[in-house]
Structure formats: structure tokens, C-alpha cells
Write a structure and sequence with these properties.
Elements: E1 4-5, H1 8-14, E2 29-33, H2 40-52, E3 57-62, H3 67-73, E4 78-81, H4 85-93, E5 97-100, H5 108-120, E6 126-129, H6 131-140, E7 148-151, H7 155-162, H8 171-181, E8 184-187, E9 193-196, E10 199-202, H9 215-229, H10 233-252, H11 260-275
Parallel strand pairs: 1-10, 2-3, 2-5, 3-4, 5-6, 6-7, 7-8
Antiparallel strand pairs: 8-9, 9-10
Helix pairs in contact: 1-10, 2-9, 2-11, 4-5, 6-7, 9-10, 9-11, 10-11
The chain binds ligand NAX, adenosine-5'-diphosphate (ADP) and magnesium ion.
Organism: Furfurilactobacillus curtus
EC number: 4.2.1.136
Catalytic activity: (6S)-NADPHX + ADP = AMP + phosphate + NADPH + H(+); (6S)-NADHX + ADP = AMP + phosphate + NADH + H(+)
């Protein structure tokens, strides 16, 4: 099947005016898990993006070293030590949308956290698997749960997960491996592709001004926020991918580099535009 562009029509269908008679419970409970002692910034950026993307309630499970920093930046988030596996399991089970992996790391503690999360998720939950969580699944050949799975690998992570070297990552090979894996695959690169069943979508936007650590962590948080709010999971993912790079392209008109946290701050303004009736 031909590769389809992600269009603004998909965003207008997805990001709708909020009903007046609604509350934070209406817009989803997102749980984000990641940020070890070395990569605290990754989970702070993912959490920031989920909140700016409109998640109703956001809880982050991370290394205790990151708790003060995260609270200082985003008091909207609830924050818990991810070493408490009992609480991790309880909070994960109560979420609509789970994001695991930004800055999680790949040591034994990170593996226990990931295994606890994967063991506790159910079919109705959206689970976004990013960064270190992709690497751990690939290196330990972990079995995947029945859930609405979304993988967000860059090309190197896709190589580890699929076994396809970057030069072998052709549309036909990617589709075959994506179908074997199941779920939605966001293959991040210049002109990111989103693969779902037999369909492949391509993001028309994106700029090398985005090549800064934390840009993918920000996308993962946006995907968490959008999948928690918007029922059609594929459209939620496509909308997150599109807006993420659209903001960057707009900022890059006048800036040589765009920071991930700058993207997050712009998300609500862009969502508003897509929610308005077309004149
Ligand atoms: N501030 C922070 O705490 C940050 C933490 N990070 C976390 O660090 C962990 C390791 O992730 P990394 O991605 O750095 O490490 P990886 O070792 O998985 O991949 C990075 C390398 O892959 C190669 N590569 C090839 N094609 C690529 C593509 N299309 N896009 C990106 N890289 C490509 C690049 O040479 C790059 O050095 C993740 O958990 C991630 O979330 C990163 O997000 C960076 C920022
Ligand atoms: N040259 C580029 N063109 C378009 N998008 C880019 C470019 N460089 C990076 N990006 C985007 O930035 C993000 C990088 O993701 P990732 O490598 O996971 O970052 P990190 O793990 O550091 O947060 C992806 O969404 C990718 O599409
Ligand atoms: Mg990444």
C-alpha cells in the first residue's frame, strides 16, 4: 500500500473542542516511567510534554534523585519513586495511558521496573514504549503484553528491536517487521513514518533544528497525553507526530536550533487552532 502523508484533516478530526461539562477525569490518567540517576532530564521532558498536551492527570515514576527537579519544573505532576514496585504496579493499573522508557536506563533496576509494568497492563490501556524500554525488550527478548502498544524507536532502536540494520530499513521490510511485532510503530527520523497494520503514514514536516537530546522524550510524552484523551489511538499518534515537528518547523524559521522544552510550551496553542471550526 502507498505511503500516505499525515494531513491536517486528521488533526482536525482528532483534536476537538472540549465539552463544557467535563473535568480532569475526562482527559485521561497518564503514568510516565523513566529517568534513572543519569537521565533525569528525559523523564522531566516527557512529563512536561504530556501535561502541555492536555493529559487530565499525570503521575511520574522515576529515580528519587529527580523528584525535586521535576516538582520544581512541573508542579502539575504527581511524582513517585519507581523502586516501589508495588506502588508502580498499582499506579500503572489505574492509568489509561502509560509511557515507559525515556531515560529509564538498561541496568537491573530498570529491567525490574519494565517487567513490573509489562506484567500489569491490560488490553484497554495504551502503552508507549520508548528509549531504554525498547532496548531492554530487544536485548532480553521480553514478551509483550496484550495492550494498545505504541513503539517509538529511532532508527538505531528500530535496528535493535526489529533486527533490520538501518540500510535494510526499507518500506517493505519495515512493514513486515512492524506487523510481526504488532501495535503502532513510530519510526523516528527525518520524515518519521508511522506504521500500523498494512498502512504507513509519513510525516511531511521536521527539521535538523530538532536534533537535540530530549526531542524524542518530548514526543513520547505527547503521545501519552494524546492517547489518553483521544479514543482513536492511531489518529492520536499521528496528531502528536505532526504537531511535534510542525512546532519545530515554525520555530526554526528564526532559530538555528529548537529545544524540546520550547516545543512543549507551544503545544496548547497549536491544539487550539486545530479544535476551532474552519472558516
Ligand atoms: N537529558 C536526558 O536525560 C536525555 C536522556 N536520553 C535517554 O538516553 C537513553 C539512550 O537514548 P539514546 O537515543 O541517546 O541512545 P542510543 O544509543 O539508543 O542511540 C543514539 C545513537 O543512535 C544513532 N542513530 C542512528 N540513527 C538515528 C536516528 N534516526 N535518531 C537518533 N539517533 C540515531 C546516533 O548515532 C546516536 O548516537 C534513552 O533512555 C533516552 O530517553 C536521551 O533522550 C538524551 C537526553
Ligand atoms: N533531521 C531531522 N529531521 C526531522 N526530525 C528530526 C531530525 N533530527 C531529529 N528529529 C526528530 O527528533 C526526535 C529525536 O528522537 P530521539 O532520537 O528519540 O531523541 P531523544 O531520545 O534524545 O529524546 C524524533 O522525533 C526525530 O524525528
Ligand atoms: Mg529517544
Amino acid at each position: 500500500m502507498a505511503i500516505q502523508p499525515i494531513t491536517e484533516a486528521i488533526l482536525r478530526q482528532t483534536i476537538r473542542k472540549r465539552p463544557a461539562d467535563s473535568h480532569k477525569g475526562t482527559y485521561g490518567r497518564v503514568v510516565l516511567i523513566g529517568g534513572n540517576a543519569r537521565y533525569g532530564g528525559a523523564i522531566i521532558m516527557a512529563t512536561t510534554a504530556a501535561i502541555y498536551a492536555g493529559a487530565g492527570l499525570t503521575t511520574t515514576l522515576t529515580d528519587p534523585l529527580n523528584i525535586t527537579a521535576l516538582h520544581a519544573r512541573m508542579p502539575e505532576a504527581m511524582v513517585v519513586d519507581f523502586h516501589d514496585l508495588k506502588l508502580l504496579r498499582e499506579l500503572t493499573e489505574a492509568a489509561n495511558s502509560i509511557v515507559i522508557g525515556p531515560g529509564l536506563g538498561t541496568d537491573d533496576d530498570s529491567l525490574s521496573v519494565l517487567q513490573t509494568v509489562l506484567a500489569g497492563v491490560s488490553v484497554d490501556q495504551s502503552v508507549t514504549i520508548d528509549g531504554s524500554a525498547i532496548d531492554l525488550i530487544a536485548s532480553h527478548d521480553l514478551s509483550l503484553p496484550q495492550a494498545k502498544l505504541i513503539f517509538t524507536p529511532h532508527e538505531m532502536e528500530w535496528q535493535r528491536l526489529s533486527g533490520l540494520s538501518i540500510s535494510q530499513q526499507t518500506p517493505a521490510n519495515n512493514t513486515r517487521l512492524a506487523q510481526q511485532l504488532g501495535g503502532i510503530i513510530v519510526l523516528k527520523k527525518h520524515h518519521t513514518q508511522v506504521l500500523f497494520e498494512e498502512q504507513t503514514f509519513e510525516n511531511p514536516g521536521g527539521t535538523p533544528a530538532m536534533a537535540t537530546g530530549g526531542m524524542g522524550d518530548t514526543l513520547a510524552g505527547m503521545v501519552g497525553g494524546f492517547t489518553a484523551q483521544f479514543a482513536n489511538q492511531l489518529n492520536a499518534v499521528l496528531s502528536a507526530v505532526f504537531i511535534h515537528s510542525q512546532i519545530a518547523d515554525d520555530l526554526a524559521h528564526n532559530a538555528y536550533v529548537v529545544l524540546p522544552t520550547q516545543i512543549s510550551e507551544e503545544i496548547p496553542w497549536y491544539m487550539k487552532q486545530y479544535s476551532l471550526p474552519q472558516s
